[in-house]
Write a structure and sequence with these properties.
This protein is of the alpha/beta class. It is built from 14 helices and eleven strands. The chain folds into two domains: about 240 residues, Aldolase class I (TIM Barrel, Alpha-Beta Barrel), CATH 3.20.20.70; about 100 residues, no CATH class. An eight-stranded parallel β-sheet has the order 1-9-8-6-5-4-3-2. Strands 7-11-10 form a three-stranded antiparallel β-sheet, with no helix packed on it.
Length: about 350
């Protein structure tokens, strides 16, 4: 079965869900152009998810995807939080922020029974997961409305794990991909390989459609991964400058500057490795720092620094997610970008 048949789409392209830089508008535009538009839900409340899905249902009759994280919420460790804030102390002083006024918190929630209840009202045709999969009970709930389930693998081992649990397709997320790594069976970043290599490994070993993700931002990149057996592609970075994206002014400016040439996988912003444009925080604290609390507890301490810096036009403390191949970002509608990318399947 092809990706087009599996999802009911005309272009075998999934718009990568990008929490923090998009809402329903981007998903709607891609869906109406023939791809699979995606709504990232990890940073949304149940009411916000309901509102966004209502908007999608009102503005497209095409299939769409909703995306969730599957992490286990960590137990806060006071000593670790203290050390993290000590590392940031010089920045608090610089911006005259009292760290005692900053509440701790998560900010990103895993898939839950409450959310599944909301989804059952809308029955989204595709549900995707990052950081593994939810419980068998929740998986059965999603399947109860005949949704297709897909998830990210960053290694062949993770792909086998997903296949054994009955996913309908596997997203092969190469190290070039922007945003959070989907890594979930290990914390060892030396296991992470490039998209081209990963796609070939999974295609050879597993009899499921493989969706290539990471470093693909134009028709040539699509042709390359399709030539080694990918059934389709998932693309995010190419949409960051689209009209429908909510990418901030500072993030947009960085993508259009020489700074965009330098991206790195870092755990500083959330506690999990994610690829973004190098900025002051990464340069001064190191891309991977063991002081950072477990995902997603790192975000709260950084929030006021980000706010203060951005108010002065600086992205020093902003997570400006981006894949390695960001030179193809264009200020067009998401539909126009989708149709341009579609030429890679000709």
């Amino acid at each position: 079965m092809t990706i087009n048949q599996l999802f009911g789409i005309s272009i075998p392209l999934i718009q990568a869900p990008m929490a923090g830089v998009q809402g329903s508008a981007l998903a709607i535009s891609v869906a109406n152009a023939g791809g699979l538009g995606s709504l990232p839900c990890a940073m949304l409340t149940a009411d916000q998810i309901r509102s966004e899905l209502t908007e999608i249902k009102a503005k497209t009759k095409r299939p769409f995807n909703v995306n969730f994280f599957c992490h286990t919420q960590p137990t806060p460790v006071p000593e670790q939080e203290k050390n993290w804030r000590s590392l940031l102390a010089r920045y608090y002083q610089e911006y005259q922020i009292d760290p005692d006024t900053i509440p701790a918190g998560a900010g990103r929630n895993p898939f839950s029974a409450e959310v599944a209840e909301v989804l059952s009202e809308f029955k989204p045709p595709v549900v995707s997961f990052h950081f593994g999969l939810p419980s068998d009970e929740l998986m059965q709930r999603v399947r109860s409305w005949d949704a297709k389930i897909i998830a990210s693998a960053t290694t062949l081992e993770e792909a086998h794990w997903l296949a054994q649990r009955g996913v309908d397709a596997i997203i092969a997320q190469g190290i070039e991909a922007g945003g959070h790594r989907g890594i979930f069976l290990t914390d060892d970043l030396t296991t992470q390989v490039g998209t081209f290599e990963l796609v070939q490994q999974i295609v050879k070993a597993i009899n499921l459609p493989v969706i290539a993700a990471g470093g693909i931002a134009d028709a040539a990149g699509i042709k390359k991964v399709m030539s080694v057996g990918a059934a389709g592609v998932q693309i995010g970075t190419a949409y960051l400058l689209s009209h429908e994206a909510t990418t901030s002014r500072i993030h947009r400016a960085a993508l259009q500057s020489p700074a965009a040439e330098n991206t790195v996988v870092t755990n500083l912003f959330t506690g999990r490795p994610a690829r973004g444009i190098v900025n002051r925080l990464i340069t001064e604290c190191g891309a991977i720092n063991q002081t950072v609390p477990a995902f997603p507890l790192a975000t709260a301490a950084l929030a006021p620094l980000r706010t203060q810096a951005e108010s002065q036009g600086s992205g020093d403390f902003t997570s400006m997610w981006s894949g390695t191949n960001n030179a193809h970002c264009k200020e067009l509608s998401a539909a126009e970008i989708t149709l341009e990318l579609a030429t890679g399947f000709d």
